[in-house]
Amino acid sequence: MRELIGLIIIGIGVAFDFFGSFGLIRLPDVYNRLQAATKGVTVGTWGILIGVCVLSGFNSLGVKALLAVILIFFTSATGSHALGRGAHKSGIKLWKKSVCDKYEEDQ
Fold it and tell me: Is the dihedral of CA 93, 21, 48, 2 positive or negative?
């Protein structure tokens, strides 16, 4: 039963990774692509790592997977914010149908 649950969680993680990667291709500008990549790949990687932890149990591999989940939790949000802010400061324009620009309002 534990193996089935672990494989289901890994499958959900792979699906999120796929749709995050698909968003990189389909979305119109760098900011939307960054959103899709960050959310999809973060949740997808969490799913894969938690599935590995469920499959392996609470041993050294499971603890390393949980530590990687914690590391990804903090670094992906910080990295995507830095990339988005750097793109905005470099003058990369938003998509023409974007509704608002919070960075521009703050300045």
Answer: positive
Helix 2-26 to helix 30-56 angle (10° resolution) is 170
Question: Taking the chain (107 residues) in consecutive chunks of 10 residues, what is each chunk's mean pLDDT?
Answer: 95 94 88 86 93 93 94 90 87 76 65
Instruction: Please count the structural domains in the chain.
Output: 1
Q: Is residue 58 part of a domain?
A: yes
Question: Do the domain assignments include residue 31?
Answer: yes
Q: Look at residues 93, 100, 89, 79 and name the one whose alpha carbon lies nearest to residue 28.
A: 93
- Taking the complete model, does pTM exceed 0.85, yes or no? no
CA distances from 81 to 21, 39, 68, 78 (A): 18, 12, 20, 5
